Amino acid sequence: MPHLTSTTPSTTGTGTGTGVRTALGVPGYAHPLVAPAQWAELARPGTPLDWVALNVAAGPGTRPDPHCLAAVARLHDAGVRVLGHLDLTYGGRPFGDLLSDAHRHLDWYRVDGFLLDRCPTDRTALPEVRRAVTTLRAIHDSAHIVLGHGSHPHPGYAENADQLVTFSGPWSDYRWSQVAEWTADYPPERFCHVVHGVPRGHLDEALRIARWQGAATIYFTDRTDGGGRADPWETMPGYWDEIVSRVGTGVSE
């Protein structure tokens, strides 16, 4: 059943009509050299960002990248939380490789936490994911940890991270999606939804679904994955100003 949040009018300008502060979690754009204007836009004052993921080259890359260093510095100056992208490959990533990437993210880019992408969802993988999260917190005690499952995992994962991505996929699936009942035991700030292929005319509907399902961090884009041939997160949505205006304090006229 849907997780219905409070309908009490908000005093924080959520853009959703609830007392929950909705914010944007950006899964990661193309390299700043390719998309400098988009990275600059993320540092624009008033943009309601929860976090931005940094994925230099399937992780932190092999050496510090000057363009990424500059982009991250601008985001930090704007008070934006930056997460280093770590690929768990659904539990197939060697622990040592994961830890090495985490150290590079911290040493080079001073990230504020980590997005553990392609995180497994089953109960059997939970101990290994718990080990990874515990180690990441040991090397960065205030790290913000987001587990990028993409669907509802075993509820035990909720005890091991700050946030879970419980939906990642196309609008055609999202509009008919169902929420796992166990998520009602946690506040909406613990859950993220990232959805591609959302038409401009369905933004309000998408925001309502996120509210009903109890997800306070969202990212909606009209870009598509081209049937699995493209990365829908690489470029900014065509309606960026509109979604910023609806979600947060607004930067649009």
**Count of alpha and pi helical runs:** 7
Alpha carbon gap, first and last residue: 37 Å
Helical proportion, percent range = 25-40%
How much of the residues is beta strand, in percent? Answer: 15-25%
CATH fold label: TIM Barrel
Pfam families: Spherulin4 (PF12138)
Region (Disordered): 1-20
Protein name: Phage tail protein
Biased composition (Low complexity): 1-13
Q: What does this entry show, briefly?
A:
The protein is of the alpha/beta class and 253 residues long.
What does this 3D model show about the protein?
By secondary structure, this protein is an alpha/beta fold. It has one domain: TIM Barrel, CATH 3.20.20. 28% of the residues lie in helices and 17% in strands. It has seven helices and eight strands, in the order E-H-E-H-E-H-E-H-E-E-H-E-H-E-H. It has helices spanning 36-42, 66-77, 95-109, 126-139, 171-174, 203-213, 240-247, and strands at 23-26, 49-54, 82-87, 113-117, 144-148, 163-170, 191-196, 217-220. An eight-stranded parallel beta barrel has the order 1-2-3-4-5-6-7-8, surrounded by four helices. Strand 3, helix 3 and strand 4 (113-117) form a beta-alpha-beta unit. The longest helix is centred in the middle third of the chain and has 15 residues, at 95-109. Residues 1-18 and 249-253 have low confidence and may be disordered.
